[in-house]
Amino acid sequence: MRAPRTYLDPTMLDQARRLEAMTQSVRTLLPPGLRDHCWVGNIKDGVLVLVTDSGTWAHPLRYMQREVLKQMKAHHGISARSIRIRVRPVMQAFTPRPGKPLPPLNEDAREALSRAADSVEDPELRETLRRFATQG
Q1: What confidence tens digit (pLDDT) does each residue in 45-73 have?
Q2: Contact criterion met (CB below 8 Å) for 135 and 102
Q3: Of 78, 67, 4, residue with least CA distance to 30
Q4: How far are the Cα atoms of 13, 68, 79, 90, 122 from residue 17, in angstroms, in the given order?
Q5: Which pLDDT does position 26 carry in this prediction?
Q6: In what order do the strands lie in the sheet with 38-44?
Q7: E runs forming strands in 19-130
Q8: How many C-alpha atoms does 105 have within 13 Å on its Cβ side?
Q9: Which one, of 89, 132, 84, 91, lies nearest residue 112 by Cα?
Q10: 41 band by pLDDT with thresholds 50, 70 and 90
């Protein structure tokens, strides 16, 4: 089985590393309560995009735009002209509702999982599909 990073484009990984470094740099300027709620989303055409998970955090970020732009220029050589703040709520992980369990798989679904398992080369995935098929 190939390592997950082998499926990713190296330029995407470099971009992700740069954004993470910029995020850490921006967070050093922010008050402690705001740090975990803000990250750098992109920089394009002279616009630095900051992302926050709530409108509550967007307001104080607007007041810090000048300091953030100075920090980006001093530490990363980025001459952004402006900052755009985006609010993107963090998705919550799916939590099954307590109560009745899921219905068992019907015969067609079990057969489809078995056929899929037979066609997969990866032994770990094949075994997982077979296990699902027999749990019914």
Answers
A1: 999 999 999 999 999 999 999 999 998 89
A2: no
A3: 67
A4: 6, 19, 19, 21, 30
A5: 92
A6: 38-44, 47-52, 82-87
A7: 38-44, 47-52, 82-87
A8: 16
A9: 132
A10: very high
List the structure tokens of 70: 């100075």
Q: Estimate the crossing angle of helix 10-29 against helix 65-76, to 10 degrees.
A: 130
What's the one-letter identity of residue 17? R
Structure tokens at 33: 């309560």
Buried b (16+ CB within 10 A) or exposed e, 96-134: eeeeeeeeebeeeebeebeeebeeeeeeeeeeebbebbe
Residue 50 CA to residue 61 CA, distance in Å, equals 9
What residue type is 3 in one-letter code? Answer: A
The pair of three-digit structure tokens given for residue 13, joined into one six-digit string: 């990984």
Inter-residue contact 68 to 29 (CB < 8 Å): yes
